[in-house]
Specification:
The protein is of the alpha+beta class. It is about 20% helix and about 35% strand. It folds into 2 domains: about 45 residues; about 170 residues, no CATH class. A hairpin with a 5-residue loop joins strand 7 and strand 8. The longest helix has 21 residues. It is globular and about 50 Å long. This is VPLPA-CTERM protein sorting domain-containing protein.
Length: about 220
Amino acid sequence: MKKLATTLATMAFCAVTATSAAAATYEYVGLAFDTIVDSAAVPGTYTTSDKISGSFTTAALLPEYVTSTDITGLLTGFSFTDGRNTYTMGVDEIVRFEVITDASGNIADWTIELQNIAVPNSLNPFFPDNNFKRLITRSGFFAGEVGTPKWDQGIELACTEPTGCVGFNFANWDEGRRTGANGSWAVDPTPAVPLPAGLPILASALLGLGLLRRRR
C-alpha cells in the first residue's frame, strides 16, 4: 500500500513538472538601418527598410540577474537576419553571444556577433580570402565597449584580389547600420508538454491518493 502511494505521488509530481517545464524563445526586432554603404564590387545592397531581427532558443528560461554571461552553451538554436543574409545555428559561426538579464529574467543588455566566412584566411580567421558576412547587434554595455554606441549592423565583403585579401578592403564593402538605438526583445515560454496532456495523469494520481486515504 505504501509503495502504491509513493508511485501515485511520483505520478502527480511528474504531471506538474511536465506541465510547467518550458523551453524559451527570445525574439529580437531591431530598428531600420539609417546608414547604408554600397560597393559596386559587392553584388546586392542594403536598404533603409532592412534591419536586424531574429531569435534564439534555450531549453529553459534564462535566470534572473545573469551578469555578462556567454550563453553559447545554452543555445538549442538561433536564426538571425540583416534583411540580406540569414545566420543559423550549425551553419554559421558564433563570434560572441552574451547577455545580461534583469530582475524578471528579461534581456537587458547584449552583444551578439555572427559570421559566415566562405574561405578562412590562414593568417587571420577574422579576415576572408573570398567572402565575408557578419551580423552584429549590441547594447554597448559590455567590457571593451565603453563609449561604444548601441549598434545594429549587417556587413558583406567580397575579395576581388586574385591572391586573396589579407585584411578588410573597404572598397569592396557593403554595410547596413543603425547607430545609437536598439530594437526590443520579447520572450515566448513554450510548455514542453501541453497542459491538457498532463492533466489526465495528475487527475488519476490525485484520485488514487484520495481513494487510498478513504480506505485507511
